[in-house]
Design a protein that fits this description.
The protein is mainly α. It is built from 5 helices and 2 strands. It has one domain: Winged helix-like DNA-binding domain superfamily/Winged helix DNA-binding domain (Arc Repressor Mutant, subunit A), CATH 1.10.10.10. The chain has a two-stranded antiparallel ribbon with strand order 1-2.
């Protein structure tokens, strides 16, 4: 895999945390590349299972990152927020100790 492709995959990963459903045109726009380049990058993510195609979609086809969506949704649950707050407070207090 080329260095350029690796950089693009990182940029797509960043996009997926903001929008868990992407299309090839959206990826092309985000990366500032042609459709074919975006398609090749997307195919890499399909191969490793980060994206799945929504069957029956066309023009554009939709590709959700379900696992990323699930992690984000899980983190938004009230008990997860309480745990994060508790951890943050604990970490802050520990960092203030001499």
């Amino acid at each position: 895999m080329s260095a350029g492709r690796s950089v693009n995959l990182i940029a797509i990963s960043d996009l997926l945390f903001r929008s868990q459903v992407v299309t090839i045109p959206r990826i092309a726009e985000h990366l500032g590349v042609q459709y074919r380049s975006a398609q090749l990058n997307l195919e890499s993510l399909l191969k490793v299972g980060i994206l799945k195609e929504v069957e029956g979609t066309a023009n554009p086809r939709y590709f959700p990152a379900r696992e990323i969506r699930d992690v984000i949704n899980e983190s938004l649950r009230p008990e997860a927020e309480e745990q994060l707050t508790s951890l943050t407070v604990h970490t802050f207090h520990n960092s203030c100790d001499p």
